[in-house]
Amino acid sequence: MSTKNKESFIEKKKKNSFPEKAASCYLYAVLCLLPLVFVNYYADIAYVKYYFYVGCSLVFLTALLGYGVVIVHKNKNTILKENDGNFIKLLQNVWKDMTVPEKLMLGYLLVTAISTFQSDYFYESFWGNEGRLSGLFLTLIYGICFLLIGRFGSLKTRLMDAFLFVGNLVCLFGITDYFQMDILGFKENMWQEQLLMFTSTIGNVNIYTVVAAIFAAIAMILFIAEKKLGKRIYYYVTLIIALSALIMGQSDNAYVSLLALFGLSPLYLFRYRWGVKGYGISVATLLSVILCVDFCSKNIPNAIVLGGIMGVIGSLKFFPLIVAAAWVIAAVIIWMDRNHKEEEASVWWRRGWIGLIVLVCVAVVYVLYDCNIAGNAEKYGPIQSYVLLNDRWGTNRGYIWRVALECYGDYPWYRKLVGFGPDTFGIITYHKYRPEMQRLFGEIYDSTHNEYIQYLVTVGAAGLLLYLSMIAASVKRIWQKQKDNPLAMAVMFALICYWMQAFVNINIPISAALMWTLWGLSMAACRKAS
């Protein structure tokens, strides 16, 4: 067989329609059904979504495994001939065909497995039942499905349109909760102090705002890039709904997601004139949504009072003037660009934005220094709680992070490398810190509320390094292969929103399942572009 006509076994499988159809069904099930599924309202919503995701994934994996066995049996002679009957050579060819993110994924899964088997709590590490169900079992499902979606999945507009439609349902339900309507009776038997902690068909408001941020990121990039009027209106309406849901969710991680989306997306959007114009409209839209939500919170009966940074912004006397100015600036940019035929924008748009990012970073460092080291916290008024880093920072996140790093510092060297075991933070702190947690805060923390510190403590420096490397390699690959594809870039910014908010949030099989699925889709888009 000539080199030109020779095809590897992997490429033959890739061209076959069954794996692609199975992947398509799986993607629709996870992206379009997982956000909506529930049984006993909030009582068991995390477990219901966990079992739904795991069930869909196992069906998908079983179908592809059975298909693969049949194909291998039918083509065993060809496979052996192509690899000279050498199994090692077959594995080498498979390895060569893998991308950098895929290789890093295998390394991450290996470290997670080692962490589990060396843990003093193997059962708990395997299942994650003493944490948020994110043990080795679920990690393997995430990883294997990521690899298979990257091989057989397809990032299509109709899939993302369906995903955004589901997002509209989720966010609209959450918006009705903001006005305490409870149209589906989710909160009828809840304790009074829990009413504001859960919303929509997602559950905890922190996770709800993560999901809303994913919808907002995809809707915003597609709205800006879309040329057809009808679809552009659809994406714009979806963007308004998602931004409203984000703000009404009143979770601080929403601010991190918004900062990531509006702070980093210009690095892509400002390559194009339509990107500059669309970004101006999006900023004006965000400010308008904040103004409207603040107005509703003050004038509509039963509406929850808008708090946090958004409440401070909305209450500024001159904020309506800022909103009006944003729309005027957006209109001026559009009017000045009306006669330009070329698509690319001046490079100075991006250079100027990079300069602005640098200035903001310098300002943040100065404020943190001034507040925490120079001792001038009092002058920051209503934002003091956001810039004063102590045990109470971020609803006691400062305390949890300190405890986690203290635990990590006490590890022997091998556990510093591979951790104590996946999702075992609650076990690590049980004896030493549980009484203190109950005395200080009246609750027990089984997660660090920072995914990266969580990985450091549970799967060690090796696991964290591989995970971060996988993120960096994936972003680099998407940018290199798909920077001219708005659909892929929309997914990338949705992932970036997730990865940024992960600094202050937890990993559970609702938002994380969506993230891993979209991550695999982004890799599939890059493979098809190769």
Radius of gyration from the alpha-carbon trace, in angstroms: 24 Å
Amino- and carboxy-terminal Cα gap: 24 Å
The coarse overall form would be: globular
Judged by helices, strands and strand pairing, the structural class is mainly alpha
Query: Which bin fits the share of residues in helices?
Result: over 70%
Mean pLDDT: 91
Give the oligomeric state. Answer: single chain
Strand content: under 5%
What series of H and E elements makes up the topology?
A: HHHHHHHHHEEHHHHHHHHHHHHHHHH
The unreliable regions are: 1-14
* Number of extended strands: 2
Strand count, sense and barrel status of the largest sheet are:
2 strands, antiparallel
| Discrete helix count | 25
Strand order of the largest sheet: 1-2
Please give a structural write-up.
The chain has 530 residues and is mainly α. Helices cover 72% and strands 1% of the residues. The chain has helices at residues 9-15, 17-33, 45-74, 76-82, 87-97, 100-118, 122-127, 136-152, 157-178, 205-225, 229-249, 252-264, 266-269, 273-299, 308-314, 319-336, 347-372, 384-387, 393-409, 413-418, 425-428, 430-441, 451-482, 486-501, 511-529, and strands spanning 198-199, 203-204. A two-stranded antiparallel ribbon has the order 1-2. Helix 9 (157-178) packs across helix 10, helix 14 packs antiparallel against helix 16 (319-336) and helix 23 packs parallel to helix 25 (511-529).
